[in-house]
Amino acid sequence: MSMLLQLLGLLVIAAGAACFALGTIGLLRFPDTLSRLHALTKADSLGLGLVALGLLPFAESLGEALLPFLAWGLVLLSGATTAQLIAERARR
Amino acid sequence: MILDALIAGLVLVAAGWTLAARDAFAAVIGFVCFGLLLTLAWARLGAVDVALTEAAIGAGATGILLLFAVVRLRGGTEEVAAATPSPPQRIAAGLLAAAIGIALALAVMLLPDPAPSLAAPAMAELPAFGLGNPVAAVLMGYRGLDTLLESVVLVFAVLAIWSMAPDRRWGGVPGPRFPRAEHGPLSLMARLLPPIGIVIGIHLAWAGADAPGGKFQGGTVLAAMWLLAWVAGLAQAPAIASRRLRLVLVAGPLVFLAVGLAGMLVADGFLAYPPAFAKPLIVLIEAAMTLSVAAALALLIAGPPERAA
Q: Which end of chain B is more exposed for a tag (fewer CB within 10 A), N or C?
C-alpha cells in the first residue's frame, strides 16, 4: 500500500517538475511582461503545491508532512504579491 | 554527481553573467541568483548553517542593499561618473580578485587527503556548552572573539552609512518616506507576512543552539519583516538620534562584551564561560545579538538620514 502511495507521490512530483519546466519555457518564450509573469506564477504556485503533495507519502511524521505545505503557503503569498506588484509597474 | 556538476556550472554561469551585465539592475539580479545557487551548493555539501547564512545575508540582505544603491545612483549621473573607477583601475581590481581566487582555489586543491580537521575534538567538547549544534559551539565557544568582532563591525558599518549624511541631517530619519499602502497586494503582504516572519525569525535564532540557524539568519528575517512594513508605509523609520534605537543597535555587542569580561572574573579568562552557565549565557548573547543584527541590517538598507525627525 505504502509502496503504491509512494509511486503515486513520485508521479505527482514529476507533474510538479513539469509545471516548473513549462513555466520556465513560458518565461523564456512569451512575448511580453504580463504573459511571462502568468507563466512564472503558474509554475511557482501549482508546481510547488504538487511537489508538497507528492512528498506526503514519504513523510515520517505529521510535522514533516505539513512543513512543505507551510513553505508552499508562503510562496503562494509572496509569489502572487510580487507578480501583482511587477504587473502594476509594467502596465504603468 | 551530475547534480553537483550542474550546480557548480550554474554558479560559474551566474557569476560570469553578473560580471558581464551592462545594466546595474541586471547585475544585482544576477548576483542574487548567484547567491541562491551558492546556497544550493552549500546545502549539497551538508553545510546547512552556511547555506542559511548565504541565503539570508549573501543573497537576501546584500541583494536588497545593492538594489537600493542602484536606485539611489540613478539620481546623480555626474557624481556617479566622477566616482566610477577608470579602466586601468578596474583591470587592476579584477586581476587582484582573480589572483586571490586562484590562490584560494590552489590552497583548497593542495590540501592533504584527509584534510586536517578539528571536527572530532570540537564534537567531543560539545556537551560542555550544552549545545547541540557544533557550528554554534565554534562561533560562541572556541572562536567567540571572532564573533564578538563581527558583531562590532556591524555597528561600525551602520555608523559609516550614517556619516554619509550632510551635517544638517545628522540625527534625522534615515531613508525615503514611502506612501502608506492602504489597498492592494503590497498592503496585504505587509500585514499578513510579518506575524509569520517574526515567529520564523525568532525560531531560527532560538533553534541555532541545537540545529542549523542562529542570530544572523534569524536577525535577517526579522529585519526583512520590518523592511516590508517600512516599504508599505505601515512603519516609520526612527530618527537616528533616538536613544532607544541606538541601544538596540549596540545591545548585542555590549552583552557579548559584558559576558566576556565577566569570564575573566568567574571563569578562565576573557570570553570563557563558567561551565554550569555556558548554555544560558550563550543564549542570552544570541538573543541580544539577534535584536542588534536585525536593527543593523535594517538600518544599513534604510541608508543615511535624509530628513529632519
A: N
